[in-house]
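Appendix B, Record 12. Input sequence as logged:
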Amino acid sequence: MINAPTLRRRLIWTGLATAVVTAALMIWADVPVALFFHDYQDTAWAKFFGFITDFANGAIWYTVAVLGIATAYIRHKSNAEVLGTTIRAWMFMIVTMASSGIFINALKLAVGRERPRLLFRDGTSGFHPFDLNLTDCGFPSGHTQSIWTAMLSLAFIYPPLRPLFFLIAVMISASRIIIGAHYAGDVTAAIYIAVAAAVVWRRWFERNGISVTLARRAVD
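Logged structural output:
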């Protein structure tokens, strides 16, 4: 495991890099990209992304984690050690999603960035800190945070399926831009927050040497 000072430095530098990229997107690319995809909203491929975007709903992945805990009780109630480590892994997923979700919503209200739909309707793309309703605030993307924290958590819990989890995260986060729900900068910032939350919480849950990984552990 990466030691704490190294992890801190990496998070700081990647955070600064993300901030630069996000700012560049906001200034030069977000509006043109949003308008480009808006012209294709009636195409079949755009409708496909419109369908898969709903799989970012956090309720789906909280349910997966709760079912994981319930299954652990059923399968391993006679084995306290295995039960404890399995529940710990699923709690890691729940805490990662919940904490980053709360942070994202607070940041949305603080920044108050208009969503692309206001650009399409009124031609505006401004910022109104602490002035917009949460549903009108687009930065950072909550759906992106939700799917990336869920998929990163599952990637740590079940490493053999990491390629699938990452593919799902990339596809669904891209859908937020393609369907015009968010600007590219909203998505970029949310991915960083999700990654940071996942690695920090993983370190905390594994602080006593108990891994959150289940796929390689003999649990039966």
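The radius of gyration is 19 Å.
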